[in-house]
Amino acid sequence: MVRTKNEGPFGRNNLLTLPLQKKTSLGVYIGDTGEAVAEMAAYAGFDYMRIDLEHTFADAAKLQNLIRIAEAADIPTLVRVARMDDVTAILDFGASGVLVPDISTAAQAREAVRRTKFAPIGERGMTNIGRVVRYSRTPLSEYFPRANEETALCVQIESQEGLDNLDEILAVPGVDIVTTGRQDLSQSLGVPGQSAHPLVDAAEETVIRKAVERGLQVMITAGTPERMRELNAKGVYLNTICFDVQFITERFAELVNTYRR
Questions:
Q1: Residue 115: enclosing H or E segment and its boundaries?
Q2: Which of 40, 101, 193, 221 is most open to solvent, judged by the fewest CB atoms within 10 Å of its CB?
Q3: pLDDT in tens, 167-176
Q4: ∠ CA(228), CA(168), CA(186), 5° rounding?
Q5: Residue 197 is a catalytic residue
């Protein structure tokens, strides 16, 4: 697979350098499927891989393999955690960043920063034997000063409380990327399950506008190429365009329906 590299601090793509190209980066969501699907997505040419541990059963071996597959294709990985206690191990293994769901207050954002970034920004646990430092082959004096430049922290706004505290959350130093959770937003806004409701649209637009104004990167799902172009015009360059299970299920159904007709 031939890829055009955007060299980051460690000489590979990462989620903080990709958007600086000012062109869309296409992401794939990997949830319940396995390593083969992730490898197919890598060969297809996706720019980043969003791995979910919140709505799937956590499997350390599977997660490790997904990260290795992505690295082999020079694709950064953003892992949505189920618990903040998992952040250290996920980053020590080599994930490009973490996505922390349901951030509703600045205090929660600060705690996410504390666990994700090293001093002086945070207090991420240090190791000199983890995979991220090539099992001690990379000197800490080389890794630590650059880790904060590459390791991405994405906070997910998915409640009315998060919207109410949005300005304070976005002002927390160390927050790099902001995203939304339309399903949970619909529930919090009183229209459960209606993720395309105007209230949800308005909430997402508010998050995008305020984050871009602060110079933060934004990651938003783009269901169509037209939506992707709209997002690009607003300054959103990280666009998740495919959810693994949904994509496969829909293609299966289309194939069966075609033959049935």
A1: helix 106-116
A2: 193
A3: 999 999 999 9
A4: 50
A5: no
139/47 Cα distance (integer angstroms): 29
Pairwise CA distance, residues 240 & 18, whole Å: 13
Beta bridge partners of 51: 30, 79
Q: Choosing from 55, 131, 214, 251, which is the catalytic residue?
A: 55
CA distance 211 to 170: 7
Q: Write down the pLDDT at residue 12.
A: 63
CA 82 and chain centroid, separation:
13
Q: How far apart are CA 246 and CA 55, in angstroms?
A: 14
Q: What is the pLDDT of residues 178-230, one digit of tens each?
A: 999 999 999 999 999 999 999 999 999 999 999 999 999 999 999 999 999 99
Contacts of 186 (CB under 8 A, 6+ apart): 192, 193, 194, 195, 197, 199, 200
Length of the chain: 261
Task: Mark the ranges of the chain whose per-residue pLDDT is less than 70.
Answer: 1-12
